[in-house]
Amino acid sequence: MAKKIKGPQLIIANRLDDGRVVFMTENGNWTPDVARAAVADTPEGVEALEVQASTSEKSNLVVDTQAVPAETGDAAFPAHMKQAMQAKGPSVRPDLGYQVSKTWETDAQEGN
Predict the structure, then answer these.
(1) According to the 3-state scheme, what is the secondary structure of the chain?
(2) Nearest-angstrom CA–CA distance, 67 and 23
(3) Domain spans of the chain?
(4) CB 44, CB 2: distance < 8 Å
(5) Residue 61, Cβ neighbours under 10 Å: how many?
(6) Ranges of the chain with pLDDT below 50
(7) What is the bridge-based pairing of β-strands 62-71 and 9-15?
(8) pLDDT at position 110, please?
(9) pLDDT given at position 1
(10) CB count in 10 Å sphere of residue 71
(11) Which of 30, 32, 65, 80 is such that its CA lies 20 to 30 A from the CA of 18?
C-alpha cells in the first residue's frame, strides 16, 4: 500500500564520506544544493525516489535516506525545521562551514 503524503516531498540523506546533508536530484545523484532536489507530489513519485535512494544506500554512497515534506516556490526547501537547519548548515559559527559559500568545499581543498 502506498504511503499517504500531504504535499510535495524530497529525499534527504547524509553522505558517508563526510556526513554532509545531501538531497536526491531528478537523475538520482546527490547534491548539497537543496534547490536542485527532486520533488515528488504523488505517493508513486515518492516511492520511485525512495527506490533510487535505497540503491544509493546499498552502494554505500549515503546513509539515513528519508522522504521529508517540502515547501516549493522558486526552489524546493525542507518544510520541517530540523531538515531546514540541516540544509542550511551549522548555526553555531555562521562564519565557518558550508553555509558561508556554495564553493566552500572546493575553496577549502585549494587552501583559499
Answers:
(1) CCCCCCCCEEEEEEECCCCCEEEECCCCCEECCHHHCCCECCHHHHHHHHHHHHHHHHCCCEEEEEEEEEECCCCCEECCHHHHHHHHCCCCCCCCCCCCCCCHHHHHHHCC
(2) 10
(3) 9-101
(4) yes
(5) 17
(6) 1-2, 108, 112
(7) antiparallel
(8) 54
(9) 40
(10) 15
(11) 80
Cell numbers for 26: 531528478
Q: Which three cell numbers stand for residue 37?
A: 532536489
Residue type present at position 33:
D
Residue 41 identity (one-letter amino acid) = D
Joined together, the cell numbers standing for residue 33 give 544544493
Q: What is the grid cell recorded at 5?
A: 503524503
